[in-house]
Every structure is written in C-alpha cells, then in structure tokens.
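DM between two lab members

TW: hey, do you still have the G-protein coupled receptors family 1 profile domain-containing protein entry open?
JB: yeah, one sec
JB: this one, 245 aa:
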Amino acid sequence: MVIHFLNLGYISPATGVYCKFWMYVEFTLDSESVLLAATISVQRHLLIFRQTAFRLRPQRYIYYYLPLLLSIIYPMIFYLVTVVFYPCDESQWNFTLNMCGDNACYLSNDLVLAALDWILNAGVPVCIIMPANVTIIIRVVRQKARRHQALPWAKQRRMTLQLLGISCLYLFTWIPTVVTNVMQHVHPSSGLYEIQENYISDLTYLICLLLPWLCLGLVPDFSKWLWKNFHRLQHPTNIIGTTVF
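TW: and the structure you got?
JB:
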C-alpha cells in the first residue's frame, strides 16, 4: 500500500474505508512486531538460564506460547476497536499524504487513549528490548566467569553484535516516532507534524528492510555460505568434458 501510494503520489481509492483498512493493518503489524521482539527478548533469558521452565507442557504454554499469542492477538483486537469501530469524521482524511495523513480518529479525538497507545503499545516494549538484550550478554559472561569456563570470544562477539544490532534498530526507528507522537498529542504543532510526516514516520519501515538480515546473521556460517555462492556466481567454473553425438 505504501509503494502504491508512492507510485501514484495520492491515495487510491480515496475513501475512508480504505484509509481505515490501511491504518488497521499497519498499526497492527507495527505493534505486533515490537511486542514480539520485546517478548522474545525476555523469553531468551528463560531459554538460556531457566530451561527447566519449559520441560512441562503447562509451563511451556504459560511462559512460551501464551505471551507470543497475546503479542499477536492483543494488537488485532485493540486496533479493531480503536481504528475500525471508532466513530470517525470522513472529512479528516488527507488523500495526498501517506496513510491518509496518519491521523486515525481516536488519535485526534481522545488524547488519553492516544498517549496510552503510543506509550504502552510501542514505548514500553521498545524500552524493554535494549535492557533485556544487554543484560543477557552480561549474564552469559558472568556465568562463564563464575564457572571458570573459557569464553569463546568469536561467538561472544557475534552474539553481542547481533543482539545489540536488533536492539539499536528498534530504538533508532521507534523512539523518535513515539516521542514526537506523544508530544504532538500533548501539544500539537504544525511544524512538528510536518517533520513527523515527512521524515520520522518512515523510520519504522527500516525494520521491515533490515531486521530479516539481522536475523539471518544469527544463523551459523550464513555469511560464509552467502559469500561462497556470491563468489561462485561472479566467477563461474568452466567444465571441459567429452560430448557424444
């Protein structure tokens, strides 16, 4: 939908139903992404240091499946109520801006609900991701030092770079968005709205572009495999043999 808008330069079809559908899909997927990242960052501590918590089936459902399921279902229900079913004035849509001006009715009509949405559904999960990933690195190093085990620094460096890379990606893309949106709803400003609409709101799309590559970096020897195949494409091997007619 974003690519379609950027290609045309305007919203098509220019209807409130399409705007609501676009906002519902984008808000839901964005919130699910950050909630899942925060949930997985916390669960990683249990997977590494409390593996016994997942041995029994009831514990697996409580500590593993249930949080992941809530991270997916909760945004779907929340934005179904606040975006789709919330009473809306059709005149507020701007069909010349991305996502119809990114101005859902509940964001402009209910400041408390809007602030809670940005803080609880985006701000708090983002603030959990960085400490959870940093502390897991510290716990791994401290545990090995306590047990007088040798630290495989190559693996430690790779894990540290990957976890910090994922954390910094969410911080870089979400913190400016959350801060400017909360400021905009507390004290509206046309200048801040233009900066937010033209620059800051597009930062979250970087997660879709960069996160898959960061996750692939977690796969052992993926970079070697990728470089090997890329090098093979750049320098194909000529095979000389006998042809029978």
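TW: got it. The domain at 2-234 is CATH 1.20.1070.10 (Rhopdopsin 7-helix transmembrane proteins). Residues 115 and 182 are 6 Å apart (CA to CA).
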